[in-house]
Amino acid sequence: MNITGMKFCERCRKKEADVVLSTVRFCEPCFIEYFERQVQRAIDGEKLGAEMFSRDSRILMAVSGGKDSMTLWNVLNDLGYETCGLHIDLNIDEYSEVSRRVVENFAASKSLDLIVVDLRKEYGKSLMELAMRDACSACGLVKRYLMNKVAYEKGFSVLATGHTLDDECVTLLGNLTRWNLEFLQRQYPILESTHPKLVRKVKPLFRISDEETAAYARIKRLEFVREKCPLASGATSLSYKKVLNELEQRHPSLKKAFYLGFLKNKSLFGKEENFELKTCESCGMPTANVGLCAFCKLLERPKRRHDEKSKVKPLSI
Ligand code: AMP
Ligand code: ZN
């Protein structure tokens, strides 16, 4: 701080700090440099034991239209990586229409390739017609299955998602509070392929908080969908996020210490067991089940009646 009360960027010490977050105080150009450097460190695999991808990798970028995945797609593009976007249109009324439009506009404005999988067009059912009670778990299953299937069938070497430090902290807290050892062994920013038809998955934003992606998206004037999915209750993850944010307020950098400390001490939880995967009788993709995979089972279930749909609020981006 100088005599006029103006706070300077902690990096260049010349310009006014206009990005003031719980962990950093930068001017905009220094913030963008810092942000890109954090993502590059993640991609290069610093302290991870392997790089996420290289300049020649064929990268499939899963984009929902939300702040985090739009941010990651933009950073990867600015860092010079060649990416193709993948958007899964779940046909959740206006929410999906708006999300798809955001992703398509971005791809067109940057001349980037984009694959859109329209659930109803490809499989005859929207998410609400597929899901029985728990729309969120059906949604997770459908997205995981389709992301991997497209990445495998189109020959991509890696699938990138926009999971942030906050997402990883919420998952970690959930896994720890329930002492879910199997999930703790598996949780990592790089998920190696354990089957020829399972594509490697990476989370290049694992060092970046939600607060930081919000600042990045604002500075870069990125268009993204602000509303949360109208079907998501997300009660548990929201309460975990709230607690973590309260702790971060009192103890800056706690989220980073929590998650990066976990990565450092991960061996304490033991090694993941490699169990043999079977092949789905219908689609030929790998599955832990005998017979049909979870996705094909979901497709086989009788269609949900349209009038059982929950009301979806209209929204804008
Ligand atoms: P979520 O599970 O909604 O928190 O999303 C986590 C990540 O999954 C996002 O950052 C995206 O990379 C990806 N993702 C989520 N929804 C979609 C979608 N509809 N289409 C493509 N990718 C998605
Ligand atoms: Zn199947």
**What's the tally of helices?**
12
Instruction: Name the hetero compounds present.
Output: adenosine monophosphate, zinc ion
Strand content: 5-15%
N/C terminus separation:
37 Å
Structural class: alpha/beta
Given this structure, which CATH class of the largest domain is correct?
A: Alpha Beta
CATH architecture tag of the largest domain = 3-Layer(aba) Sandwich
Give the topology string: H per helix, E per strand. Answer: EEHEHEHEHHHEHHEEHHHEEH
Structural domains: how many: 2
Low-confidence stretches: 307-314
User: Gyration radius, to the nearest Å?
Assistant: 20 Å
Largest sheet: 6 strands, mixed
Overall body shape: globular
Number of strand segments: 10
User: What strand order characterises the main sheet?
Assistant: 5-4-3-6-8-7
In helices, the fraction of residues equals: 40-55%
Mean pLDDT: 92
CATH T-level topology of the largest domain: Rossmann fold
What is the CATH H-level superfamily of the largest domain?
Answer: HUPs
Polypeptide structure, described:
The chain is of the alpha/beta class and 317 residues long. The protein is globular. The chain folds into 2 domains: 19-227 and 235-272, Rossmann fold, CATH 3.40.50.620; 275-309, no CATH class. The model is unreliable at 307-314 (pLDDT under 50). The two termini are 37 Å apart. The chain has helices at residues 28-43, 67-78, 93-110, 119-123, 127-130, 135-153, 165-177, 181-186, 210-219, 235-250, 254-264, 294-300; strands at 19-20, 25-26, 59-62, 83-89, 113-118, 158-160, 190-191, 200-202, 278-279, 286-287. It has a 6-stranded mixed β-sheet with strand order 5-4-3-6-8-7, with helices on both faces. The chain has a two-stranded antiparallel sheet with strand order 1-2. The structure holds adenosine monophosphate and zinc ion. Residues 62-64, 68-69, 86-88, 90, 143, 161-163 line the site of adenosine monophosphate (AMP). GO terms for molecular function: ATP binding; metal ion binding; transferase activity; tRNA binding. One of its GO terms (biological process) is tRNA wobble position uridine thiolation. Zn(2+) 2 binds at residues 280, 283, 293, 296. One of its GO terms (cellular component) is cytosolic tRNA wobble base thiouridylase complex. This is PP-loop domain-containing protein.
